[in-house]
Structure formats: C-alpha cells, structure tokens
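TASK: fixed-backbone design
INPUT:
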C-alpha cells in the first residue's frame, strides 16, 4: 500500500460472515498477488423467460431476474525471480486455496473481499478456479503457474434488499424501516396508495401500525390499488 492508501497489489481477504466484518484466523485471512492481473473481466447476466406456447412461432421475452455478477481474474505466479520477487510457487498456490477454498468451520467457502488500487471493494465468493503450471525445474518443481479464478458477487440480505428496491406494485417488496417512516407513507412509496396500510399491517402481523421500529423488515405483498 502506498502513502495515499492505494493498494499496489491485488489482495483477497477472507471473512466468516456475509457482511465481511469477522476476519478468518491468521494465515487463512489474506492472499496477495505478487504479479497483478493484466486483465479483469466483469460478467453480468439477466435471466429471461422466452418460452412460447404450443402452436406459436414466436415468444414474448419476460424478465426473470438479474443474476449476481462475476469477476474473472488470472494470477501469474513466477518463481524464477525474473520479476524481482523470488517466491515459492507451490506455497503461493496453497495460500490461495486456503484463503478462498472450503472452510470446515463455516461448512462453506468463506466470504471474500477483492481489492486493488482504486477498485475497492468487491464482496464475493470463489465460484471456480483452475491452475496451469507453465515451467518446471528438472526435478519437477514448478517455477511458474497461472491461477484462473472466477468469483461471484455476494451480498448480505440487508444489502441485497436495499440494492433491489423493486418499484413495481405487482411484486412482493421488502423495506427496512428508517427513523421517521410511517406505514401509510411506505404504502405510498410502494403502491402509490397510502390507504392500503391496514392490509400491509395484517400481512406483517402488526397490532399497532403507528409503532414502527427502525431496522424492522416489512413485507409489502401485491395488492389491488
């Protein structure tokens, strides 16, 4: 990291929780790329329904959902010393696998943050990885390798709901109550009709719709305006 707080090398850090607040222990916490990727590929995919009925020749394209984006990175590991860093190739690969791979304590791969330079910070989990060994010593010790890894974006439930915030009234919505929110006001935002608040109160089992506590999640089901 330089004096401006910018990361000179790409770093992957592992956490135990989806909000990336609780670090994994010791040596399983961080992987640093000694040679930065020359390319970062960001992928996005929209799921569409293009099924057509029997006897028809065309189909209407209906929106399904936006799938989590992914990031493809290639890590070049050079143990020849040609780039100024003399590293143990196999040890670096093991470190990558330990930081990003399956965690027996969590019973799943850890949650990750990927950061480099001004590209901070992506929350993700490892989706797949492959390792290609490129150069060997005569006795079979690897001197160069490339790790090709795909990470898929991950967000905790609170962040995911806040990002989505669908506005169509024919979908079920989830809102986090903020200070000053009222149930009629939230119904106005979702449905365009504040008088639907009694039905929303019933859907959420609220005995007193005036007593909304900040941080509470409320469901707004599809309702007739």
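OUTPUT:
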């Amino acid at each position: 990291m330089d004096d401006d707080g910018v990361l000179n090398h790409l770093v992957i850090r592992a956490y135990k929780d989806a909000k990336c607040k609780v670090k994994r222990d010791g040596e399983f916490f961080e992987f640093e790329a000694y040679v930065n990727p020359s390319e970062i590929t960001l992928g996005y995919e929209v799921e569409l329904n293009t099924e057509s009925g029997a006897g028809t020749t065309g189909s209407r394209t209906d929106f399904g959902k936006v799938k989590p984006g992914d990031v493809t990175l290639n890590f070049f590991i050079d143990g020849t010393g040609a780039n100024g860093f003399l590293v143990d190739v196999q040890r670096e690969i093991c470190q990558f696998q330990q930081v990003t791979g399956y965690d027996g304590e969590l019973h799943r791969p850890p949650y990750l943050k990927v950061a480099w330079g001004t590209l901070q910070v992506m929350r993700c989990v490892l989706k797949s990885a492959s390792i290609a060994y490129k150069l060997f010593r005569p006795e079979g010790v690897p001197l160069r390798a490339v790790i090709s890894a795909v990470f898929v974006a991950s967000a905790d439930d609170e962040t995911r709901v806040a990002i989505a915030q669908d506005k169509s009234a024919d979908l079920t919505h989830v809102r986090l109550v903020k200070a000053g929110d009222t149930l009629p006001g939230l119904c106005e935002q979702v449905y365009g009709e504040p008088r639907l608040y009694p039905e929303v109160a019933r859907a959420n089992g609220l005995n007193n719709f005036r007593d909304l506590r900040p941080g509470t999640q409320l469901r707004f089901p599809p309702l007739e305006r």
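COMMENT: DSSP finds four helices and nine strands in the chain.
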